[in-house]
Specification:
It contains 2 helices and 10 strands. The termini are far apart. Strands 3, 5, 6, 8, 9 and 10 form a 6-stranded mixed beta sheet that branches.
């Protein structure tokens, strides 16, 4: 795209780069303006005309605007200027005009119908509509990101809870298993101890019965003094050897 580089020093406007313009161009020529600080806070437009009876304004965005094709239809002297409106103070700033020559371009046998250039008001409406669409898209993207963030947070919390719950279940299972093993060991030891007691008591009981039978036999075979002496001695021997 052909670009005319301009510098706006307050109300003084001058061309920095001046490429040749040929008639017949449509939406292929633009101006790029470097503004000094005097233009800060202004909504800026480019002003273009060949005849003051048909003056065109183009909204300047990002310091650029397209030159309307209506002023490029024929070879002529093109006048270029700038206007600025401060919506806060209602101030209006204009620049001096510069002259730019349009030379004859290659003619076209059958020209296609091209829609007329939008008025500044129509351009502002389109810019406003585009801004609203951009805001809505931003809000939609932000809402989607927020929903995804909440899903990710909930999923993370749920996974951590499940991991914690499994850890606690494993620890409880290990604890109950350990307790059951200790109970089993104690029961086994108790059974062994009880069996030992029972065996000792049975041995003692058998020994007592044996002594009773022996004493009974001695009493039946000998006189009472002799039997008493033998039983006492035998009992003393047996009890001391237990």
């Amino acid at each position: 795209m052909t670009t005319i580089e301009l510098f706006a020093d307050d109300q003084n406007l001058r061309a920095i780069e001046s490429p040749k313009l040929a008639s017949g161009d449509k939406n292929s020529v633009k101006i790029h303006v470097e503004f000094n600080s005097e233009w800060n806070g202004y909504i800026k437009t480019g002003v273009f005309f060949v005849d003051k009876k048909a003056v065109f304004e183009q909204l300047i965005e990002n310091d650029e605007c397209i030159i309307p094709h209506e002023v490029l239809e024929n070879s002529a002297i093109l006048y270029i200027g700038l206007r600025g409106v401060n919506t806060n103070t209602t101030q209006v700033k204009t620049s001096a005009l510069i002259e730019y020559r349009i030379v004859d371009g290659a003619p076209q046998g059958t020209a296609e119908s091209v829609p007329p250039t939008d008025t500044v008001y129509e351009q502002l409406l389109k810019a406003y509509d585009n801004a609203l669409k951009a805001i809505e898209k931003y809000k939609t993207d932000l809402s989607n990101e927020n929903e995804q963030f909440k899903k990710d947070v909930n999923t993370n919390i749920d996974n951590k809870f499940k991991t914690y719950q499994k850890s606690m279940d494993d620890k409880y299972s290990q604890f109950t298993s350990s307790i059951n093993q200790k109970i089993s060991d104690i029961t086994s030891q108790n059974n062994t101890f009880q069996q030992t007691i029972n065996n000792s008591f049975a041995s003692f009981k058998a020994e007592v019965n044996t002594r009773i039978k022996r004493a009974t036999y001695i009493l039946s075979q000998e006189t009472e003094p002799e039997a008493a002496e033998q039983i006492e001695g035998d009992f003393w021997y047996k009890t001391t050897t237990l």
